[in-house]
TrEMBL record, chains A, B:
Residues 109-269 form the Oxidoreductase molybdopterin-binding domain. Its cofactor is Mo-molybdopterin. Residues 287-405 form the Moybdenum cofactor oxidoreductase dimerisation domain. The keyword Signal applies. Residues 1-28 form the signal peptide. The keyword Membrane does not apply. Gene3D superfamilies: 2.60.40.650, Oxidoreductase, molybdopterin-binding domain. InterPro entries: Ig_E-set, MoCF_OxRdtse_dimer, Mopterin_OxRdtase_euk, OxRdtase_Mopterin-bd_dom, OxRdtase_Mopterin-bd_sf, Sulfite_DH_SoxC, TAT_signal. PROSITE patterns: TAT (PS51318). This is Sulfite dehydrogenase. It comes from the Bacteria. GO terms for biological process: sulfur compound metabolic process.
Length: 421, 421
């Protein structure tokens, strides 16, 4: 479809209307009586229903995609990319733009080839096919998955300019799967018996195997063996056909292409939970087993990739908040770098271990802002400042940075990643 | 990545294990100690993180797509296609496989070209740009959208063989948008005043314009001017950049590419609400203004496109239920064509005007079943049989068939669309 002369006429017509007014009274133009041509999109046919059996975003949204940062990792096989959270709204993350983290790349594994073994300290070691898994009772839950290294570059100061890059190693989907508890019971684990000191060791079918240890209490509580996300099959890059879901805990434990679950009498102390995914403290010692993602939030708009383009007057400040320990109960927003705070509106009451969308419907006077958000969860925890975190943990950390993020918004509406003390 | 000799070895190994047992005790195989080769997917690299900036489903899921039925409409421009609900689980419908219904095709309209006019009986007729809309307070809601003609072919008996085709003109997404009420107030409508007899007439920017009248009470209640679905921009085929959301009411009123909202002192009696989208009764008279989609449900698995392939023993029967008048409170499932019923498990408590997933975790003895589901909503309404509907409305209808669906499942696990009386 051509957007030729008629389009230009229409735009000129619209621009001839009353200019946009500042303030709450009117944020639109009065109709222009001079528009006489029919626009091309109103005078011809569009696409038929068989044009795109599986649809993609419209070409105008080509920039709303996952992006990696080349200098962050040595190669793109063992690397990460970032969800374009600056351009999304609501809470659900479409699979197509949900961040990826691979240790040896996203593998292709068919349902026919898929097997899941449960072994170790169980009465009946078992191997499940994909079809077997479909015969157990399923649950549906919306959960966020956040990489432990999300915001990791912020330990050393404001380095990446954009919410996608500082906070985009997170996604939020509706999972369908079988409780891990059900499969462990199927393998003869006596979940009513004494399981103190028992763990599960979980690993994936990719070359990295990415093995992790999970205490039995968590394994039996809410972990899911998931095969659908947002209604459809998991995408290849999210673990097709089956991944582990570990609600609220760091994404590295959400084993993709999960192939084996071993019941053990202690943690495995694997590479992924010793040399990696531990927190190096001030004194150089490493803190391990820091699985839960603490309460955190970020303003997604305005932000460096989503500047204010409309001038003074009504402004919607929006962002995301989450907690791996429960539900978000409140989010405050500051325009002055944390001196004063206003409580934001939650789009819905916070849900356990799921993203919560917040809005602050406000006015912008055109002056510089130091925008921050501060999340609170139902354990009573309040998101700390970056400096509060550094006080306890020093500057050696990579993981678990849930400090308050600051965007400097200047008079032209542009934003950048800054630090305030 | 090649699936060569190693794959065959692995499959042969697995098949050598203990055969699948019937019954609840074990639904998997014991591990096979003979697997010695490393599978190809575990011995090489997969895709890097920059392989697919916006991802698509894995190739093994190529059949999980929207499909149209060629003989249903004269052409594919003014036509429909169907969501593959037989292959989905949970409740969210990804935009890429959510059904489409166009009257003159899916048009391409940029945000820069987009305008929304509010005119008619308002104090201040206004034209909004896309950027204007982003300055008003937003809401997030998950709602189903069902075409009035969904299951329409079932009036004349079981004709289409598959849940995708009988019930697939429905999708369920998380919308972000501005309440229509807010924009009407911005145009000076006194929503506290006497609005009796007032309507809005809404139309789209496509050639069909698809104009519909909506009573003011509904317009002010819960209608949304939406610009995101499942977190991201609306897809072209779902009305990019802006569509109307009319919760619980027939999909034809959910105007895509919405360009104009006129406040009127009565309904417009447009083509789309007189010659179309009215219900021709037994006596030939037409019933109009039947907007709400009554409570309805369907078993999505097993179903003709999702047969039972695993033999006797544990079986998960699953499906969807919804009501345009409120929340689903209960779904019953029958295996004997409605003689006896068991109450299914709802994955979550029903939410207002959103899809509800139900499961019946049961055993299959390998005998023939006449599978049905029956939804109830919080108004006390119980989904009727097709015959009960026909008794009231005769056989002239196309729209609003919410009768109970029956799948005949035979001893081999295959299913077909049948009628029971």
């Amino acid at each position: 479809m051509s957007n030729g002369p008629s389009r230009r006429t229409f735009l000129r017509g619209a621009a001839a209307g009353t200019a946009l007014l500042a303030g709450t009274a009117a944020r639109a133009q009065t109709p222009d009586p001079l528009i006489t041509e029919v626009q091309p999109w109103a005078s011809g046919f569009g696409d038929p229903v068989d044009a795109h059996p599986y649809g993609m975003p419209i070409r105008f949204e080509d920039d709303v995609v996952r992006r990696n940062v080349e200098w962050l990792t040595a190669d793109t096989i063992s690397s990460i990319n970032f969800t374009p959270i600056h351009a999304l709204d609501g809470t659900i993350t479409p699979q197509g733009c949900a961040f990826e983290r691979h240790h040896s790349g996203a593998i292709e594994l068919s349902k026919a080839d898929y097997r899941l073994m449960i072994n170790g300290l169980v009465d009946r070691p078992l191997v499940f096919t994909y079809a077997d898994l479909e015969r157990f009772p399923r649950e549906n839950h919306v959960y966020f998955c956040e990489c432990a290294a999300n915001s990791g570059m912020e330990w050393a100061g404001a380095q990446l300019n954009g919410a996608q890059f500082t906070h985009g190693m997170i996604h939020n989907m509706e999972y369908t799967g079988v409780p891990l508890r059900t499969l462990l019971e199927e393998a003869g684990l006596d979940t009513a018996g004494d399981l103190s000191g028992k763990w599960v060791y979980v690993e994936g079918a990719d070359a990295s195997s990415n093995g992790r240890s999970i205490p039995m209490e968590k394994a039996l509580d809410d972990c899911l063996i998931a095969f659908k996300a947002n209604g459809e099959a998991l995408r290849k890059e999210h673990g097709y056909p089956v991944r582990l879901v570990v609600p609220g805990w760091e994404g590295n434990m959400w084993i993709k292409w999960i192939r084996r679950i071993e019941v053990t009498d202690g943690p495995m102390e694997s590479r992924e939970e010793t040399s990696k995914y531990t927190d190096v403290m001030k004194d150089g010692s490493a803190r391990k087993w820091t699985w839960a993602m603490d309460a955190k939030s970020v303003v997604t708009s305005p932000s460096p990739q989503a500047p204010i383009t409309h001038g003074k007057g009504p402004l919607v400040i929006s962002g995301l908040a989450w907690s791996g320990r429960g539900a978000i109960t409140r989010v405050d927003v500051s325009k002055d770098g944390g001196k004063t705070w206003q409580t934001a509106r939650l789009a819905k009451p916070g849900e356990k271990m799921a993203l919560t969308r917040f809005y602050l419907d406000t006015e912008w006077d055109g002056e510089q802002m130091l925008l921050q958000s501060r999340a609170m969860d139902d354990t009573g925890y309040v998101q700390p400042t970056k400096d509060q975190l550094r006080e306890v943990r020093g500057l050696n950390s990579v993981y678990h940075n849930n400090g308050i993020q600051t965007w400097l918004v200047n008079a032209s509406g542009e934003a950048e990643n800054v630090e305030v003390s």
